[in-house]
UniProtKB/TrEMBL annotation:
<keyword id="KW-0812">Transmembrane</keyword>
<dbReference type="GO" id="GO:0015423">
    <property type="term" value="F:ABC-type maltose transporter activity"/>
</dbReference>
<dbReference type="InterPro" id="IPR000515">
    <property type="entry name" value="MetI-like"/>
</dbReference>
<keyword id="KW-1133">Transmembrane helix</keyword>
<feature type="domain" description="ABC transmembrane type-1">
    <location>
        <begin position="190"/>
        <end position="418"/>
    </location>
</feature>
<comment type="function">
    <text>Part of the ABC transporter complex MalEFGK involved in maltose/maltodextrin import. Probably responsible for the translocation of the substrate across the membrane.</text>
</comment>
<feature type="transmembrane region" description="Helical">
    <location>
        <begin position="334"/>
        <end position="353"/>
    </location>
</feature>
<dbReference type="GO" id="GO:0042956">
    <property type="term" value="P:maltodextrin transmembrane transport"/>
</dbReference>
<dbReference type="InterPro" id="IPR035906">
    <property type="entry name" value="MetI-like_sf"/>
</dbReference>
<keyword id="KW-0762">Sugar transport</keyword>
<dbReference type="GO" id="GO:1990060">
    <property type="term" value="C:maltose transport complex"/>
</dbReference>
<keyword id="KW-0472">Membrane</keyword>
<keyword id="KW-1003">Cell membrane</keyword>
<feature type="transmembrane region" description="Helical">
    <location>
        <begin position="30"/>
        <end position="55"/>
    </location>
</feature>
<feature type="transmembrane region" description="Helical">
    <location>
        <begin position="397"/>
        <end position="419"/>
    </location>
</feature>
<keyword id="KW-0813">Transport</keyword>
<dbReference type="Pfam" id="PF00528">
    <property type="entry name" value="BPD_transp_1"/>
</dbReference>
Amino acid sequence: MQVKDVKKAQRLSIIPGLGQLYNGQTIKGVGFIIILLAFIAEFIFGGFSAFANLVTLGSVSMEDNSLFMMIYGTLQILLTIVFIVFYIANLYDAKHVAQLINNGKKVSHTFKELGASLVDGGFAYLLTTPAYILMVFTIVFPVLVTLLMAFTNYDFAHIPPAMLLDWIGFKNFTSMFFLSSYRATFNAVFGWTVIWTVCATTLQIIIGIATAVIANQNFIKGKRFFGVIFLLPWAIPAFVSIMSFSNIFNDSAGAINVQVIGLWNTLVPFAHIAPIHWMTDTFWTKVAIIMIQGWLGFPYIYVMITGILQAIPEDLYEAATLDGATVMQKFNKITLPTIFAIAAPIFVTQYTFNFNNFSMIYLFNQGGPGDVGANAGGTDILISWIYKLTTGTSPQYSLAAAVTLIISVLVIGISLIVFKKTHAFEMGD
C-alpha cells in the first residue's frame, strides 16, 4: 500500500482536482478541474464585469439598466459563494481521502465505485444538495436583491433604464426613522401591525382552545357534527370568506347593520343601537377585521388542540378528581400546560403569519379607511403598506425594500427567541 502525504494532498488541492489526482481518483480530479476551468471562464467573460457593474450600477442612461446590473451582480455573488463552498469541500476531500488510504480503507476510483460510494455513504447529501442549490437561487437570491435594493434610490424618479440608480447607503432607513413624514407613517403602521397581530392571533387561539376543550367533554353529544361545523371556516377559501364579510359589514346594506342591528332594535327598542360605520370608521374597521380573523383562524387551532387533548391520559384527570381538584384547577394544571408544551411553536407561527397577513387587510377594505401618510391607509399593516409603496402612482421601491428587511429581522428574531425559550428545536426525549 502506497502511503499518501496528507499535507501534500491538501496543498495540491489548492488547485482543485490536483489533490484528487494525487490520491489516484482520476475521474473525480478531472471533474474538479473542469469545474475550476468553467468558473474561471465564466468569471473572465462575465463575472468580473458583473461585479464591476454592481459597484457602479451603470454610467449612461438608456444604455445601462441599473436594475439588471444589480440582478446580474447578485447572481454572480451567489455563484462565487457556491464556488467557494465547492473549493473548501475540495480541500477537505483531498485530505480526507488521503487519510482513508493511509488507514487502509478502500476509496472509489471508477464511475461505478463513485456511484456506489454516493449511494452508500452520501445518499442523504445526494438527495438534499439539489434542494439546497435550488433554495439558494429561488429564496436567497430574491432576498439578496431586496437587501441591495434597500440601499439604493430606486423610486418613481429613478426608474431604469431611463434613469440610473445610485447607492445611497442607509438613507432609506434613516428617512424612515428620522424624516418626520415617513417616521409618523412607520410608527402608525408598525404600531397597528403589532396590535393587529397580538389581538387577532390571540383571539383565534383562545377560540380554538375553548371550542376544542368544550367539544372534547364526555357529556357533549354529536361531536362529529360540531367538528364539521367548526371546520367550515377552514374549508372555505379565505379570500371568498373575506370578500363576503366585506359585504356583510357594509355600512349601508350589510347584514350586520340591516339585519342584526335592525332585529335588535325591533326586539329591544329601549336599547337602541345606531348603525356602525364598519367600513368608514378606522376603529370599527379594526374591530371587524380582528373578529373576522378570529373566526377564520380558529379551526386550525381547534384541530390541533383536539389531537393534543385526545393524547392526554384520562388517569391524570381521574387522579385530580380524587384529590378534589375543580374543573378550572384541572384545566390550569393539566390541560393548559400540556397544550402549551406541545403547541407553543405552532402558536408562534400563527403570530408570524398574521404579522404578514396581507389578504385579510387588503381584501376587506384595501387597508382603509383614512390615510396616515405615505400611501398608507388607516388599517394598513407593514406588508400591505409595502404593496402600496410599490404599486402606487409614485412607487418607492427602495423604501419598500427597507421596510421588508425590517419585517424580516423582526419576525425572524422574535421567532428564534421564542423557539429557543420553548425548546422547539430540541430533539431530546
